[in-house]
Amino acid sequence: LTTPLIDERGVLKAVALDPQIEEELTGGLVGDAPNGRADGISAQRAREIVSRISSAIASTGGGVMIVGPRLRPALALLLRPHLPHTQVLSTLEIPPEVTLRAVATVA
To answer: What is the 3-state secondary structure (H, E, C) of 16-55?
Structure first.
């Protein structure tokens, strides 16, 4: 899964989310409630976060986002219409022999 994304030194360069943003998105898109329901986020807030992610991806020349495993499917769906070539990977999808380097953090 990650092999084509790794450079010749075994480094995977990715854009990460600030922990607060990741927590907000996880609660809003995935849900933390005991019933498993998501709180939702406003369309305006979603656009703002997607814009920040787009800027970070563009400024780093990258195309990989790294997030927690619970958020990965929901974030991939959110980004697909805006950043169709951006890979959204879970931290659990990175093999231990790969060095992960965050080239930007979206805050």
So the answer is: EECHHHHHHHHHHHHCCCCCCCCCCCCHHHHHHHHHHHHH
